[in-house]
Amino acid sequence: MQRPSPLDHKEQSQRDQIHGRQVAAMFGRIARWYDFLNHALSLGLDIYWRWRLARVALPRPGGVALDLAAGTMDVSVALTRQYPDVRVLAVDYTLPMLAQGKGKIAGALSERILPVQGDGRNLPLPDESVDAATIAFGIRNIRPRMAAHREVLRCLKPGGRFCILEFGTGRRKVWGGLYNFYLNSVLPAFGRLVSGDRAAYRYLAETIREFPDERQLARELVDAGYARVFHVAMLSGIVYLHVAEKAGGMPGKGFGEAAGETSGEAADEASQVVVGNSAAAPAEPDGSDELLRCFTPQDPGKGPEDE
Ligand SMILES: C[S@@+](CC[C@H](N)C(=O)[O-])C[C@H]1O[C@@H](n2cnc3c(N)ncnc32)[C@H](O)[C@@H]1O
Q1: Long-range contacts of range 208-211, CB-CB < 8 Å, 24 or more positions apart?
Q2: Looking at the 3D structure of the chain, how many domains does it have?
Q3: Full-model pTM
Q4: Does 76 share its domain with 123?
C-alpha cells in the first residue's frame, strides 16, 4: 500500500481543520433548535439512549467524568443524576451549544458540571485525569476520529471507559429501508422546516451514512490502544452504544453488567465483545448471559451475527 506523502498529510490536516470550523459554525447556527429537534426527530427516544450511555460509563464514586462533544449538556446532566457524587467536565468545540444548555445546569448542578470550550482532538487535560468519558452523537463529527480516540485514552485513568453513543451506519437497510428513507428524506426536510438550515440536516444524514459499522469502529478503538471493546445495538441497530476500556484498573467491571443484562434489563440486540491486544486479561463474560459472546479482533468478520 502506498504511504501518504508529508504533503498529503499536511493537506489532510488542513482539510480536517476547515471541516472542524465548518462543523462548529453549523452547530452554532442550529444551537437554539437542537434540543427540540433531537427529541422530536427521535420521538423522545434520545433521552433513553443518553440514559443508557451514562449508565455504562461507571465512573469511580467521587470521580470526574468527561462528557466530550457535550453540546447542550444532556449527557452531562444524565451523568450527574446517575452518579450523585461525580463531577462532569462538559467539553465542546461550539460555544453557542454549551451556552444553549446553560439553563440546565443552573443551581446545584453548576457546582458539579463545568462547561469548557475545547477540542476533542487536543483536550486541555493532564494524562490519566478522568475516570470515565462519554460522547453522544459527537464522534461522527470529529476528524480524524483516531485523534479523539487517542486523546481520550490519554486522559482516562487505567480501567476507565470511553463510552460512545452513535447512530449505526446508515448504509445498512433497517426495517426494509423505511429508516433509510426517514434518514435521507424526512430528517433533512423536517430539520430544514424547523431550523431553516437544510445543509445542517443533510450533513447529519450524510455523516450517518459514512460512519463505520460497529465492527470497523471496534477495530479502530482497539488500534487506538483500548484494551477491550464491546457494543450494544439498540432499536434494530439504528443506534449503538460502544464501550472501549483502557487497560489496568480494578477488576470486576463485568461487560454484562455494563450492557445492562445483570440488572435484568436485556440488551436490545446481541452485544458483542472485542478483546483488544493489551496484556490486560479480559473479564469473563457472565456465563448466564447468552447475549454476550466473544470474538477476537484478528477475525473481525466472524461475529455472532454471522453464525
Ligand atoms: C450532534 S451534537 C451532540 C451534542 C450532545 N452530545 C448530545 O448528546 O446532544 C455534536 C457536538 O459535537 C461537537 N463537536 C464537533 N467537533 C468537535 C470537536 N473536535 N471537539 C469537541 N466537540 C466537537 C459539536 O460542537 C456539537 O455540539
Answers
A1: 208/140, 208/167, 208/169, 208/170, 208/183, 209/169, 209/170, 209/171, 209/183, 209/184, 210/169, 211/140, 211/166, 211/167, 211/168, 211/169, 211/170
A2: 2
A3: 0.83
A4: yes
